[in-house]
Write a structure and sequence with these properties.
By secondary structure, this protein is of the alpha+beta class. It is built from 13 helices and 9 strands.
């Protein structure tokens, strides 16, 4: 996990820093004594979460960011934000996508405190449905605001947990399964919150491909690679079908999803590790959960209890 911190009241230094941290940009202020900007960043390989605080009014003009860039405003406002001829303003509680990865944007930040969460566009494509054997088609968000308040609330909670719990614990964040699971979870939350171009319903070909052989290939791949940071797209590629066909096969034959089955397999491995360990050898429930990609301790405990009828710490103590 990487950590970055910036604190300056020099406008030139601030512009130089922002251009390095995001994309080439020009900033300005009508106040000759422009105030201070503070930026704190924590990062996974494909996701960054930045906390920014600006105590003056600043104009900005940014070249294309190349990434999905989400902005959650806590205090203050962002005014006259313009992208491709569309103008909007954001205030406390608003969660928006600032611009498509390939388009510039401009506007004014007015004494604001806000969170910027960025993720690679390819992450959305790999979580959404894609064709096997080739790079998935790029997925684009088709609106800069979530499609409902409930969807926005859910995504805000996801970002908050990622920032306050996972990224706040360096030992947890550096574990490959944890980082991969968290990044996929965030991407799935973005796809659920914003209108987008991903095709999720199976086509006629997908339905024809959703046969038992597909399922057997997928189950074997999951069993062999459960300890690796695999995605649903990886499983579909191993089974030589689209993600939609894979999802339909699991729903048709097992009444579940590929990722839910992967989670059960990893839970089984975690159960075996807890049975084999004791508190005296230094093993903790959190260690075992993280080893198998469970980054939310409460969620892991609930899943474990539902599967095995007791809390994980009891298995470890026996």
């Amino acid at each position: 996990m990487d950590t970055l911190f910036f604190d300056s009241d020099n406008l030139d230094l601030t512009e130089e820093f922002l251009s390095r941290a995001y994309a080439r940009m020009r900033i300005g202020s009508d106040d000759p004594r422009a105030g201070r900007m503070r930026v704190t960043r924590t990062a996974l390989p494909s996701v960054t979460v930045d906390e920014l605080a600006l105590d003056f009014e600043m104009r900005y003009c940014v070249t294309p960011l190349g990434r999905i860039c989400l902005c959650l405003v806590h205090d203050g406002t962002i005014e006259d934000h313009r992208v491709d001829g569309v103008q909007d303003s954001f205030g406390p509680g608003d969660l928006v996508s600032l611009a498509p990865p390939d388009l510039p944007c401009s506007g004014r930040i007015c004494k604001a405190r806000y969170t910027i969460t960025m993720l690679e566009p390819d992450l959305l494509s790999r979580v959404a449905a894609g064709a096997p054997g080739r790079r998935p088609e790029p997925v684009r968000l088709t609106d800069h605001r979530p499609h409902s308040p409930a969807a926005a609330r859910h995504l805000r909670r996801t970002i908050g947990y990622l920032r306050d719990h996972l990224l706040a614990d360096p030992d947890l964040a550096v574990q490959p399964l944890i980082a991969s699971t968290a990044a996929q979870h965030l991407a799935a939350g973005v796809l659920a919150a914003f209108p987008n171009t991903a095709l999720t319903e199976p086509t006629a070909t997908d339905r024809n491909d959703a046969h038992p052989v597909t399922l057997r290939h997928a189950l074997a791949y999951i069993d062999d690679h459960a300890d690796e940071p695999i995605t649903v797209a990886d499983i579909a590629e191993a089974a030589h079908v689209t993600v939609r066909a894979l999802q339909y096969a699991f729903r048709r034959h097992l009444d579940t999803t590929p990722l839910a089955h992967l989670r059960r397999v990893r839970l089984s491995h975690a159960h075996a590790d807890l049975l084999a360990a004791t508190p005296l050898d230094g093993t903790t429930v959190t260690d075992v959960a993280a080893r198998w990609g469970f980054f939310h301790p409460g969620r892991f405990a609930a899943l474990y209890r539902a599967a095995y009828g007791c809390p994980p710490h009891r298995t470890l103590a026996e």
